[in-house]
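Field: sequence (string)
Field: structure_tokens (string)

Example rows 1 and 2, in order.
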Amino acid sequence: MNVTKKGVKLTNVFKELGLSSGNMSRWKNGVTPSAVNLKKLSDYFGISVDDLLGNKVHLKDERLESEQDKEIKTKLNSLSEKDKELVLDLMNCVCCLLLF
């Protein structure tokens, strides 16, 4: 776990999150942290649990996104929240019609 990017000491992070120094010692010796503690740490550093653990496999790979998907995403991101809700309602109606 590389905490130098955030510019803090790991012991200070543990104190701030209410984690014991015993946890840190066990983790350094290979014991896997609990899901709750992994989530606390990933939230603190603003990264996913996978990134925190150094996992290289991600379920979503931007390279697999089609050009059409990118265009849809770009257009949706430019809309207000109210307009996004309207588009979602319309999409749901269209999907229902296509299923019948």
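Row 2 begins here:
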Amino acid sequence: MYVVDGYALAPHAAMTDIISVGRVQYLLLGISGSAALVAVLVLPETYSVVLLRKRAVRLRKETGDEGYMTSQERFKRPLAQVLRESLIRPLQLLVTEPIIFLFSVGAPPCFFSGS
């Protein structure tokens, strides 16, 4: 919500001479940074892989049974494979999904129009 408020309020602040146009980016940085900090500190973890790993670690510690493992712990993938997938998937989406391509072409002029 802070991120949306920042992008909504900053242009108005710049137009009304409350703050100079050059300082608007710093205003947005502060608002976005505070929102990110609040999110990191307040919001609970919801990614199932992380939750399962924490549960497996807790159960191993409580029971002493090393059989509690996640599938990521059992089947370690090489770093090269992980990096290759991480770099190829976004490019595949960019090429095969028209809406992602259109947003990728249309968004930069909004942010880098220069003033």
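free_text_note (row 2): The two ends are 26 Å apart (CA to CA).
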